[in-house]
Q: What sequence folds into this?
């Protein structure tokens, strides 16, 4: 289902929109949909990264834990014949 809407844009935004539309060879509506979808995905990814970083700031990994994981990884690679 789609909903039709109208928006007012500053002239410079409209010029960029038209340039992208022609470059991508798609309709104005499809161009706006693509830009909005990309923006939503970027925003969601940025929020996930911020939560990830905040988690490590609140509970940093223990140095001994990191050493054990590194050693375990090296041993696993070695047993598989990987270097």
A:
């Amino acid at each position: 289902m789609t909903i039709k809407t109208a928006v007012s844009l500053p002239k410079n935004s409209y010029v960029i929109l038209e340039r992208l539309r022609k470059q991508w060879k798609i309709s104005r509506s499809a161009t706006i949909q693509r830009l909005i979808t990309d923006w939503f995905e970027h925003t969601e990814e940025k929020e996930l990264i911020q939560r990830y970083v905040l988690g490590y700031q609140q509970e940093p990994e223990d140095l001994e834990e990191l050493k054990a994981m590194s050693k375990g990884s090296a041993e696993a690679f070695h047993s598989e014949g990987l270097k």
DSSP finds three helices and no strands in the chain. The chain has a mean pLDDT of 89.
